[in-house]
Each structure stands twice: as C-alpha cells, then as structure tokens.
Amino acid sequence: MSEDVSRNAERRRPDRAALVIAPALLLLAAVIWWDASRLSAMSNYARIGPATVPHVVALGLALLAVWTAFEAWRGDFPEREPIETVPVVWIVAGLAGQMLLLRPAGFSIATGLLFALTAYGFGRRKLWISLPVGIVLSFLVWIVFGRLLQLSLPAGPLEHLFFRGS
Q1: 33 and 8 share one domain
Q2: pLDDT per residue over 142-163, tens digit each?
Q3: Are 52 and 114 in a shared domain?
C-alpha cells in the first residue's frame, strides 16, 4: 500500500516543461490580441473584420495556456520519450542547407537537399536515391507555383535549363 502512495505522489509532481510552455502560450496569445487590436482600429465600420479571427485565435491560445498550466500542475501529462538528437541535427542541417543554397542553386536543388537530409534523419539512408527524388519533386512544385500560379520562387540552373526566361 505504501508503494502505491509513493507512486501516486511521484506521478502527481508538476510537469516543469509544461509549466514553462503555459506562460509562453499566454504571451503568444497576448501578442496576437495586441496585434489584432491594432487591426480593429483601422476598420471599425463592421463588427466582423480582419481582427475577428486573430482575436479568436488569441482566445483559443489563452484557453490552451490555462488548460496546460492546470494539467501541468496536476501532473497529468504522459511521460515523454527521450529526444533523439541525431535526426534533429540532420533536419536542421537540411534547413540550413536550403537557406544557404536557395539563391545560388535555386528552389529545386535547395529544397531537394532539404528533402534528402530530412529523409536521412528519418532513417532513409540512401541519399543517392533521396536527393534526385527530392530535386524532381521540388522541381514539380516549382513548376506549379512558379510557372502556373506565377508566384516568385528563386530559379537556379535547373529551372533555367528548362525555362529560359525564368
């Protein structure tokens, strides 16, 4: 019986990580509410305007902050799995590579590299397959958004090879 009591006491300890997340959510809600309030000053001719949805989002975040704090204090969050840092490093490396290569190499090559390194981080170890597949998929995305929808995406050597005026 004393073992059950000690287990319940251990399980009921406040979750410190969630107690940090709750005020962060509340701060985010306050920033969104403040920014939306500036929008409502611009258009006060209608009850529903550009500030309505941000106000609803801010209220939702505030409720989530209160709920998170309550659950954290009760210790009701499930135990988290340990974080594996190596996959995170591969994904962050892919993001950094994309940011560095976006202008010189273009959207398709930079985003293909992001695709390949993210796949590597998730366990797909064949970069010689993931990289070309990522570049082809990214090139198709570039065609849809850059050519068909006329959005501005950085064009590199691959895009210029197929579309001269890009």
Answers
A1: yes
A2: 999 998 998 989 999 999 999 8
A3: no
